[in-house]
Amino acid sequence: MGNKVVKRIGLGIAAYMLFVVLVMLFYKGDPNQMEWQDREQYNRVQISKLEAGMSKQQIIDMMGSPDISEAKSVTDKVVQVMFYRTERKKSDGITTADECIPLLFEDNQLIAWGKDTYQQYLDL
């Protein structure tokens, strides 16, 4: 009887491990459904993976919808800035630009990101 218990425990552990591996391999978390603390951490990690020239759609696929977005036309180009929240400064339920990292796009291509990026957008 003791041998059966050990086998069942072993089978249960193996099934659990298989479940964990499958979740890790196939589950893609939706950043738009995350709690704000998880989303901020997620955004910080994803921002560290950015590369100049990435498309706006690649960024949205990777990071989800931006918290704030602005766009304008400059001569023959479309310039857009998207803000992703990375730190809470005030517990008021409102996300503001100073709690976010701005990502600057020109004709849907990422050209800059970081704290000074919004000023670059305003100067265009």
UniProtKB/TrEMBL annotation:
Domain of life (superkingdom): Bacteria
InterPro entries (UniProt xref): BamE-like, DUF3192
Annotated TM spans: 6-27
Entry keyword set: Membrane, Signal, Transmembrane, Transmembrane helix
The protein's name in its UniProt record: DUF3192 domain-containing protein
